[in-house]
């Protein structure tokens, strides 16, 4: 079974000296699609499943892990910029957005890999 972990928190950065952790069950994260909520992570079951976070700051990162390292996501920043992200089988902190202008932003992780690739876990984001 493959898991993709959206780990325990999103890490939001407003300046170089400030970071705020957002836990996986925080009400500021909106999930869509087939998502399995575990104590420390969320499992994305099907393609089209997503997690969206609105935040105030200049960047955001997330702790991600994929059991077999064969899942891909689109990272969508402010409903405008999009890039493809391949998640490793080792839990890592991925910088999803950086050097954004100070202010309100939105980041979305959108699973594009089909369900037969197992489930990745979203463990946290910061």
From TrEMBL:
Signal among keywords: yes
Domain Carbohydrate esterase 2 N-terminal: 31-122
Keyword presence, Signal: yes
Pfam families referenced in this protein's UniProt entry, alphabetically: CE2_N (PF17996)
Protein name: Carbohydrate esterase 2 N-terminal domain-containing protein
Entries under InterPro entries matching the protein: CE2_N
Organism from which the protein derives: Hufsiella arboris
Cleavable signal peptide: 1-19
Domain of life where this protein originates: Bacteria
Keywords, comma-separated and alphabetical: Signal
